[in-house]
């Protein structure tokens, strides 16, 4: 689990798989993708910006500004040093990750650019537009190598095969086309969806292609024969996005009803149904090890999910407080969860067993925040009663070791769970 998961301010009915919600965009998030080393996550939004996130800390590192309309798609180069973004302003921008500078702007489309894809060696970039064309760009000199009049209607998604010899395109005309990238020739048309095809993606070995559609179906195709191998039904609304895990054993899909599903490719069974978004899920992406899944929604939020949890079992409910939960904090080894409440108590729960280890009582008002010491031997709690209590949680009786009084209010700080303050003075207490 990433080191930055330390607290969750929202009361949960159960211990769900959502590790973190990344907020910052001011409009719908249309695309998310991990860098190849999974250290970065990038997101594109209708607020005209691209954001880069540190996946270890959940922190927004950079906001890339320059597009004059919605950003529809983002993709990393294979070495994760360059990021490409496609926009409704008809352009594609290439960004240097380290400096956040726009390296070049590719112009030539006459309508919104809705999808982009790098070839595996990052020498080619494919762009798909609502102007019904696909353009292949030489990323070294920014030249357009080929323009393909691909579909009679808008093209919603493109993806390169791993060897860069094939390009798949998905269109509102309900079809998928496979293209020879060296000649710009259509090799085959995949038909079977009965509504617009919103997303296509190759498996890592390029033997499979997955497609999502407005007919609420996900289809898996054999790229050599063009045969539909499986039709995955289960969504009840438009499926906006699909993504393979790196080993091609899993497939994730996101739909307009805010639901994310994870499928096993071999059996076609739905392993997990993840609920948590209040708006449609426009994009899904696996980390390289498939332990984490990112999903982006129309609410402007990105959620990070732990895919290792077995969601075939109903989540067990942690022992509840008798009143509202104000904060949750994990110990650094992620073994113990501390929760604070307006019921004046702190509860310590064993994460693996999902049982309450101890209820710490002593505050006379709402407990607002807690923090573990790095070795998880001590716990500090702050309360509206103006006190901070230091608890020895390494001992069997979880004794209150010290009460630090004299405070009347608390000043939250982004770099630390809390800094106690006595208004109008500020006190910083150091426990030795």
From TrEMBL:
UniProt repeat feature WD, residue ranges: 22-63, 64-105, 106-147, 148-180, 190-231, 232-273, 274-315, 318-359, 360-401
Pfam families linked: WD40
Keyword Signal: no
PROSITE patterns linked: WD_REPEATS_1 (PS00678), WD_REPEATS_2 (PS50082), WD_REPEATS_REGION (PS50294)
Native species: Penicillium daleae
Entry keywords, A to Z: Repeat, WD repeat
Domain of life: Eukaryota
InterPro entries assigned: WD40/YVTN_repeat-like_dom_sf, WD40_PAC1, WD40_repeat_CS, WD40_repeat_dom_sf, WD40_rpt
Name this polypeptide is given: Uncharacterized protein
